[in-house]
Amino acid sequence: MSQGREGALKLDGPRFVVRSDRMDGGEDIRVAGEMDLSGIGLVDREVEPAEASDATRIVLDLGQLDFMDASGIRLLLHLNARSASNGRRLRITRAGAPQVQRVLELTGARELLPFED
Fold first, then answer.
1. Domain boundaries along the sequence of the chain
2. How far apart are CA 22 and CA 74, in angstroms?
3. With respect to CATH, is domain 3-110 assigned 3.30.750.24?
4. What is this structure's pTM?
């Protein structure tokens, strides 16, 4: 059984969407669009209840992410640090967009974050 929540943010630019689903004891959080300073709070507000729950895994899916700036990198590193003190349940699915992969590579975050293939 799945329970889901969706939050969307649309400013003057492209839309940013966060969707969260609880399935099989885990929490899946998918982000789509452009994650920048205006959207990171929305992501954090979806991850926090998952961390407080009994979810055995928390998957942050970046597969539909088109863009991420330094604030997004900072958020991912912060979520990873919180996960380290909370059972290391966080897993991150790689982004499909080459631009996002490049930012992760250039910042060195790719080697620090718990990506699953």
1. 3-110
2. 25
3. yes
4. 0.86
